[in-house]
Predict the structure.
Amino acid sequence: MAMDDMTIGLRVRVKAGVTRGERLSFTFDGKPITAFRGESVAAALLAAGERTLRITAQKGAARGVFCGMGVCYDCMVVIDGEPSRRACTTLATEGMEVETLVGYGASR
């Protein structure tokens, strides 16, 4: 498998004449994640195979991307130390630190 195939991950492959934004990197729970400028944090995490973005406070249930447009709040994460940020409405940026949201605000 070519290195480019590895960074594409689960993303849709683009056809000739279509380009992605500049490649960038951020971390999720300390693991490096490749993203492309213009992608949401949720899109990059899904493409990297990450499905659990938060753990609920009441039952400890795993939650991830559900609506993908900022309505349901299931994709909340901790971004650069700030809890309860929606991954689907936040654009990925170089060097950001994203963590699983546990309960009402602590990271994992």
Remarks:
- The chain has a mean pLDDT of 89.
